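Researcher: Good morning. I'm working through a list of sequences from a screen, and I'd like to move beyond sequence-only analysis. For each chain I'm collecting a predicted structure so we can compare shapes side by side. This is the next one on the list. No need for commentary yet; just the structure.
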Amino acid sequence: MSKPLYQLKAEFFKTLGHPARIRVLELLSGREHAVAEMVRQVGVEPANLSQQLAVLRRAGLVTTRKEGGTVYYSLTSPHVAELLDVARRILSAVLSGQVELLEDLRTAGQPVPRGG
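Model: Good morning. Structure tokens for this chain:
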């Protein structure tokens, strides 16, 4: 028996639910990267990066190619980069709406809650 589509989507988004994985996908949206490059740019320990890359490989989001002793990662589909771009646009709109609400509260003389 196959899983319902909504459950598969939930599992897909769960795979994206780690900051290091998102950062890796963002980097790979521009071009392929060697693991050593990503360690510096993602800002995690090599062992942790390897774990995150393994999760992304199992999910079918990234692929590898080996050249000598260097492993290069790339996206399996340009749709992954499109998804990240859509997420950025959604977040920008949400945050913009929050800024507008904050300004409305300030101009109305309401106390503005501090982060927390």
